[in-house]
Amino acid sequence: RHRPPPWGRAARSLPGLPPGPSRAFSNSKVLVELDESSGVATMKFKSPPVNSLSLEFLTEFCISLEKLENDRACRGVIFTSAVPKIFSSGLDIMEMCGKSTEHYAEFWRAVQEMWLRLYGSNMVTVAAINGSSPAGGCLVALTCDYRIMVENPKFSIGLNEAQLGIVAPFWFKDTFVNVVGHRVAERSLQLGSLHPAPEALKFGLVDELVPEEKLQEKAATVMAQWLALPDHARQLTKSMMRKAVLDRLVAHREEDIQNFISFISKESIQKSLRMYMEMLKKKKG
Amino acid sequence: RHRPPPWGRAARSLPGLPPGPSRAFSNSKVLVELDESSGVATMKFKSPPVNSLSLEFLTEFCISLEKLENDRACRGVIFTSAVPKIFSSGLDIMEMCGKSTEHYAEFWRAVQEMWLRLYGSNMVTVAAINGSSPAGGCLVALTCDYRIMVENPKFSIGLNEAQLGIVAPFWFKDTFVNVVGHRVAERSLQLGSLHPAPEALKFGLVDELVPEEKLQEKAATVMAQWLALPDHARQLTKSMMRKAVLDRLVAHREEDIQNFISFISKESIQKSLRMYMEMLKKKKG
Amino acid sequence: RHRPPPWGRAARSLPGLPPGPSRAFSNSKVLVELDESSGVATMKFKSPPVNSLSLEFLTEFCISLEKLENDRACRGVIFTSAVPKIFSSGLDIMEMCGKSTEHYAEFWRAVQEMWLRLYGSNMVTVAAINGSSPAGGCLVALTCDYRIMVENPKFSIGLNEAQLGIVAPFWFKDTFVNVVGHRVAERSLQLGSLHPAPEALKFGLVDELVPEEKLQEKAATVMAQWLALPDHARQLTKSMMRKAVLDRLVAHREEDIQNFISFISKESIQKSLRMYMEMLKKKKG
């Protein structure tokens, strides 16, 4: 029953791009495997130690996602981590510390691009969250259609930007509100909360918890359930639900980049980030 | 305590229309009984086999609702089914298959009209859901002020349009989001889910479950509770809550009709609907 | 650990206003105590018999709040009642009955001002709800960052305006929807519900319940948790979450005052309010 049904994937390839054969491709940061029989790809984050979203990571992520988006054989993607105990630690602080204005602009545009492509993807997207997922890592999960998390209470998830003295941008917030509602989002964002898996389930931040050894199987089952629907109607429905929030960033994209640059360039913010990095180093040492 | 309180129903009759005496009126598709002592009407859907929302049904529904709306003696309406096991199966697929553009336009305008009148009704509206209620049937329930469903898990409710390869229009979506929130709506609409009664309760899609034999009694009790409030303040409050969503359809009504026509006229959609009807016939056979 | 962390309170004093020393100040309606070591003020409502929000109360409330807002030593405020069994009974009906148009305008502007300052406050605001909290009293609680209520089921909370034949203004509604979501707000506002403490918890109208003797301790603990975050990031986050709703009133402030005046001046409304006051007097008598 995992075979694509007859309504599967109308021609979505770009003109001139032949339908892709089954394949696995790997960059240095992400590993992609596509199972042609089910139409499901798995994208594994493999950027140790913590899968931080560096400019390089984001670039490879977007290229890989676009390849899949344009591949007729692919109808859904499962995102998971190849690094133990961490899904993704979020935006790479190194990219936001002591760099040039041009670098900040390039980095922020890449973060936006990742979100725009993933939140607006025509494919079914499932996050198989096999580790902690703070800040930008949480955003990646929130941006998917469905979230399954390992039931280990040591793994936590949340938009904890406020803990670092920074502010989640409005489109992180919009995505969060769409998932957990206004009240939970307001409290969680102000407190910069990292929710242990059971609490994340309670708030609807993730859709279900499973034992670690069942995660991939569960993700495949959920994916099959979503792929049982005709692609076209499902895609139009998804687009209808997300359009307002996607359009808001598209309309304010350059302004959002300028806001990021002026905020991140402040000496007080740079100091906070350096202190935070020091703290992380000490924790490890 | 079921007598209308002094604040009940300010003059809402149209000029020239005398205040109505107690009455029952029946068209071929809906049966209306008004209990003058309580000010409560019951509208029963009696269009076997499945109370589908045909053009004829919708026309009679709107005429009946308008009569009640203009009747000083009526302050609230309970909607229920006279057909066993089904509340309403939703929009009549026959009206959307192999018909002329003019017919599609007339039909869609009637669907809009039903929703506009019901969602914007000054009366208290209670859905007593005594059977399954997919698609447009679910919309009728969502559009009421309160939903009571028979606790039979064989009865299900949901906006399952995606299952048929079609897309719920934006105002179905808006109504759904207002009831269950964005996250539940997004998932349920993409999956075209039909929720068994207990799950519908859990998601807030219905407000409570009762045994079938208690349904009418419960509906009357709930109605009395809502009618204990002064009409005027309750009506203004209801209007304040629903205005944004009502205004959106009013502002885009013709565009929405054109969208429906161009979508439904597609050969691929016509084919999906024919396949779905075949499936329904086989099920019965 | 209650000492302000290094990031505590950037210079927010108005120019020329020296940083305030620790102090307690009392007007006739509110009593304010500031604990400099923790940076936390407690504002106690002491306007017996029911802490109704009279023009005088609102004026003192706003002046006190502004003093704290401009006091570097203060980072958070706990609101509670010095009157047994009641947090606040809401807007003072005496101010809305048989007064001049000018008085209605002045009163309504004061209500708006209270909400604008409290909902937009840079400080952490915690409601320690030690009694019933109907209508405007509920609004004060909803406007805080966090709500802790005494677990006594005899204490209830809600926007019960509809019970009095009046309508909660759109910004009461917006604040309510931001806390409990659209569905709960729609039902509760139409029914003018007063929710006993356990039900209020279930609906998310309050965040937790505690025994009366633990209330102040719990409020202090929660406050310390919120103050553990850097002020600047928390304030920007709070502002991002609330800006849309705050801006709506700012944009329609004069219109909202005119609406209030024309509504409250109606003879039917005046009659309803007089009847309600008679009922209250009889209850006491």
TrEMBL record, chains A, B, C:
Enzyme class: isomerase
Function: Key enzyme of fatty acid beta-oxidation. Able to isomerize both 3-cis (3Z) and 3-trans (3E) double bonds into the 2-trans (2E) form in a range of enoyl-CoA species, with a preference for (3Z)-enoyl-CoAs over (3E)-enoyl-CoAs. The catalytic efficiency of this enzyme is not affected by the fatty acyl chain length.
Name recorded for this polypeptide: Enoyl-CoA delta isomerase 1, mitochondrial
Catalysed reactions, semicolon-separated: (3Z)-dodecenoyl-CoA = (2E)-dodecenoyl-CoA; (3Z)-decenoyl-CoA = (2E)-decenoyl-CoA; a (3E)-enoyl-CoA = a 4-saturated (2E)-enoyl-CoA; (2E)-tetradecenoyl-CoA = (3Z)-tetradecenoyl-CoA
Taxonomic lineage: Eukaryota, Metazoa, Chordata, Craniata, Vertebrata
Keywords attached to this entry: Acetylation, Fatty acid metabolism, Isomerase, Lipid metabolism, Mitochondrion, Transit peptide
Gene name of the encoded protein: Eci1
Residue ranges of the region described as Disordered: 1-22
Annotated Gene Ontology cellular component terms: mitochondrial matrix
Quaternary structure (record): Homotrimer.
GO molecular function: delta(3)-delta(2)-enoyl-CoA isomerase activity
Segments passing through the bilayer: none
Any GO BP annotation: fatty acid beta-oxidation
InterPro entries: ClpP/crotonase-like_dom_sf (IPR029045), Enoyl-CoA_hyd/isom_CS (IPR018376), Enoyl-CoA_hydra/iso (IPR001753)
Pathway: Lipid metabolism; fatty acid beta-oxidation
Domain of life: Eukaryota
